[in-house]
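Researcher: We plan to redesign the surface later, but first we want a full-length starting point. Tokens attached.
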């Protein structure tokens, strides 16, 4: 007999958990405070005709995403068209531009041109990164992480040194490449893991393989197509979605969760999966039932927040690519502003996504759709004046790169999104955008537990628990938690059917 399961939040991890939990024969209800699924991966369309993905824009590790669809008898391309980007992206440096080609052989040639001998070294680097990817993304991250004993598999134990968990990423990259451009290129993927490269385990060179070797992709219609596809699969399995239904309280009795409160009504369940912000989820239960104190959260290292601008232009920028990284300044100086000084950066790096280069449907004809993102410290003040100050800087650098004058005069739509917005819309702890940093002291078992230590039928999923931040890890997180709920012994007394959540108004 299946269980009645409530899932709080319909971000990527919540959608994944819903699909897998429903597939196992459970009655699954997803409660979402917004009017659409996706969490940080939501999408909106303006009156001017621009369609903006609000969050994720890098479609990396396509095989991991496709594994989700395969588990339900599909391929990702059954739901949306995937385009391989060429170039994958460009990096604007202080003295030139690096254009990262789609072809790995062309990438080797690029390395060789910059630093003779580095093409061969790239092969060696990528062979090791491929191993880490295969072990890391198949064996290492697919664990509930209750105990280090879970990692005592013959494959992991035999090749533990090859995972380079105790080597820092910066030193590791430095063993292969000396040119600053190549080192910055290889270090870039770990920036959003939440710490300086010297504080990230070299294990995460797997991201170089998952990106540069497996390619950078774009789902036509925007990243939100993944959200819609995951929701459709969850609904096919029987999951029911309740939008505009924020969960107000998680109610407990006799050392277990018995129900949740939604719009003042008590709804009974056998288990609850919280895919909402972990810290916020714990504010919904009595303080004595929390896994972690406020002091614990204050001691954690968080990945960055960010300043985002959604910009609609009434002109075309021929020189701009789909993805462009503006790295003209020192990476370490920007990172120090985030993790050490907790200030707005004096010499910021930023990223631009221009999906209208690939997808004509995200902007009117002859217009461009721009997504500007600048990593920031969590918990800092972000009033509109300082946001505009940094927008002006980003616009000036876009003008220089594209050779376009008076770009601000072409803005037909503008919306900013920053630290306080993440707090308001997602209850994000200190306005974090990317969860906890993947430092060694916050890896695997050392991350917040997926299971409540006091309430055996309360679980957590998402970027603040295992395996960590990012779209593929969040998909995996939902699958892991659904599996743990499935293993949970059936409650002797089923949830009270007289308060059935299907009586709630449902918006599909």
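Model: Full-length starting sequence:
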């Amino acid at each position: 007999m299946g269980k009645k399961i409530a899932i709080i939040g319909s971000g990527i991890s919540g959608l994944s958990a819903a699909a897998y939990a429903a597939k196992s024969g459970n009655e699954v209800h997803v409660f979402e405070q917004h009017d659409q699924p996706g969490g940080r991966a939501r999408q909106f369309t303006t009156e001017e005709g621009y369609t903006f993905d609000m969050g994720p824009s890098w479609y990396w590790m396509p095989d991991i995403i496709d594994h989700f669809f395969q588990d339900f008898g599909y391929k990702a391309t059954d739901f949306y068209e995937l385009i391989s980007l060429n170039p994958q992206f460009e990096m604007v440096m202080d003295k030139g531009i690096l254009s990262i080609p789609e072809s790995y052989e062309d990438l080797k040639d690029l390395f060789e041109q910059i630093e003779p001998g580095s093409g061969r070294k790239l092969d060696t680097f990528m062979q090791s990164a491929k191993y880490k990817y295969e072990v890391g993304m198949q064996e290492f991250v697919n664990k509930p992480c209750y105990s280090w004993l879970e990692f005592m598999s013959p494959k992991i134990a035999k090749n533990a040194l090859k995972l380079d968990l105790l080597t820092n990423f910066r030193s590791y990259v430095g063993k292969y490449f000396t040119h600053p451009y190549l080192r910055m290129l290889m270090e870039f993927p770990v920036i959003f893991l939440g710490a300086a490269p010297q504080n990230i385990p070299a294990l995460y060179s797997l991201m170089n393989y998952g990106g540069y070797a497996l390619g950078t992709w774009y789902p036509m219609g925007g990243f939100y197509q993944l959200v819609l596809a995951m929701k459709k699969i969850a609904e096919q399995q029987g999951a029911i979605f309740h939008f505009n239904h924020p969960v107000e309280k998680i109610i407990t009795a006799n050392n277990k969760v018995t129900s949740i409160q939604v719009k003042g009504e008590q709804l009974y369940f056998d288990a609850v999966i919280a895919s909402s912000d972990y810290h916020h989820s714990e504010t919904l239960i009595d303080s004595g039932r929390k896994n972690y104190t406020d002091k614990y959260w204050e001691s954690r290292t968080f990945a960055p927040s960010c300043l985002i601008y959604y910009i609609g232009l009434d002109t075309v920028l021929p020189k701009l690519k789909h993805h462009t990284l503006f790295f003209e300044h020192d990476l370490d100086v920007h990172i120090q502003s985030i993790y050490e000084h907790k200030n707005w950066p004096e010499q910021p790096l930023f990223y631009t996504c221009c999906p209208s280069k690939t997808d004509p449907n995200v902007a009117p004809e002859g217009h461009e759709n721009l997504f500007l993102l600048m990593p920031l410290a969590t918990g800092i003040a972000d009033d509109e004046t300082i946001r505009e100050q940094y927008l002006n800087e980003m616009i000036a650098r876009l003008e220089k790169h594209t050779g376009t004058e008076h770009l601000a005069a072409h803005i037909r739509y503008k919306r900013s999104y920053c630290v306080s917005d993440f707090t308001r819309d997602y209850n994000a702890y200190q306005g974090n955008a990317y969860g906890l940093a993947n430092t060694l002291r916050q890896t695997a078992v050392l991350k917040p537990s997926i299971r409540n230590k006091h309430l055996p039928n309360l679980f957590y999923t998402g970027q603040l628990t295992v395996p960590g931040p990012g779209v593929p890890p969040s998909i995996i997180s939902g699958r892991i938690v659904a599996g743990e709920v499935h293993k949970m012994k059936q409650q002797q007394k089923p949830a009270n059917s007289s308060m059935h959540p299907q009586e709630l108004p449902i918006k599909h």
